Amino acid sequence: MSSAAHADIRGCMGYSASPTVYELNPLLDPRWEKLVRSHPNASVFHSTNWLRALRSAYGYEPTVATTCPPQAPLTNGLVFCRVQSWLTGWRLVSLPFSDHCEPLVSHSCELNDLLVGMKPYIDGGRWQYMEARPISFRPSIAGMGNQISYCLHRLNLNRSTPQLFQQFHKSCVQRKIRRAEREALKYEEGSSELLLQQFYQLLVITRRRLLLPPPPQSWFRSLIAAFGEDLKIRVAYKDDVPVASILTLTHEKRMVYKYGCSDARFNRFGGMALLFWKAIQEAKQKGLDELDMGRSDLGHPSLISYKEHWGAVGTNLHYWRYPGEGPRSASAWQENVRRRFVPVTPSCVLQMVGGLLYGHIG
């Protein structure tokens, strides 16, 4: 599509109007995968593997906005998914269930051009809003506001394994790892059906503790099918009982910690610490540069501190919405329903609720 709208060009000297913006299907156009593999800001969330999993599990159709004409080499792009829900509305999200999605652009003016090119979808009334989740870029188009903020933690792996271990917090991390070793916790990794079931059982326990339903198993099956060997489920056992699990994804030179869960009754044995340490050791063996430890709610300082105890560096992560609105927050009655409903609901019902809801909340 082309845009007749003009960009808000404050701070973009030399720009008088927005260039034409085109759209492409990243699952069909090979230029997108080529750009993702070559762009320094590309992440696992830009990959066609992630986009295929989103489409397979939730039916989200991806699209990329770019100023590059068809058949020309692709030098920029902003990827969205179309989320069409009768419950939560129609919107363009970059990207659903992704911690972040950096625009693959060279400067903020280029990002503004792409956002302006997508504005007609919203201004025309068919779509309610569009949302972007950049790490370092700040949109500056009229009407776009900061919706909600998080803290993103990333661990630099460009040090030796012993040096990394020495930087871990002595009591909160090093001692936990040694406790796990003393307790002889068993460790397994892979993507087998057994590991998936053990991971998912722990995930249901953890989501209940957080007063949330779990994502559907179909989502994790879609991830396994899309990523193959680049996805690993890691499980720690105490006396053959699964006590902790994490799911990691690898893309180019980065490993991403995406999901973690545990049975709190066994937390004292250090299962989560063991799993992170195993993931870091593997990342070092593969010559990776970074472990992306994901986003944390600003209202959970204990989780932020936990990630910093590993030596990860936190940065502010802002989600932007057009038209701009205040942060989403659960109303008092919604919170009350969660507190009353989730703790007493059978696991099978919680899983069913998750299967019904998650496609609407991306």
Describe the structure.
37% of the residues lie in helices and 25% in strands. By secondary structure, the protein is of the alpha+beta class. It folds into two domains: 22-151 and 320-328, Gcn5-related N-acetyltransferase (GNAT) (Aminopeptidase, 3-Layer(aba) Sandwich); 159-288, Gcn5-related N-acetyltransferase (GNAT) (Aminopeptidase, 3-Layer(aba) Sandwich). It has a twelve-stranded mixed beta sheet with strand order 1-2-3-4-5-12-6-11-10-9-8-7, sandwiched between helices. β10 (254-262), α8 and β11 form a beta-alpha-beta unit. α2 (48-58) runs antiparallel to α7 (217-227). The radius of gyration is 21 Å and the shape is globular.
The secondary-structure class comes to alpha+beta
CATH topology of the largest domain: Aminopeptidase
Q: Residue-averaged pLDDT, rounded?
A: 92
**Alpha plus pi helix count:** 11
Strand content range: 15-25%
Q: What value does the Rg take, in angstroms?
A: 21 Å
Percent of residues in helices comes to 25-40%
Distance between the termini: 24 Å
Q: Label the overall shape.
A: globular
Give a quick account of the main beta sheet: strands, pairing sense, barrel closure: 12 strands, mixed
In CATH, the homologous superfamily of the largest domain goes by the name: Gcn5-related N-acetyltransferase (GNAT)
Short key terms for the protein model shown above:
362 residues, alpha+beta, Aminopeptidase, 2 domains, 12-stranded mixed sheet, 11 helices, 37% helix, globular, disordered N terminus
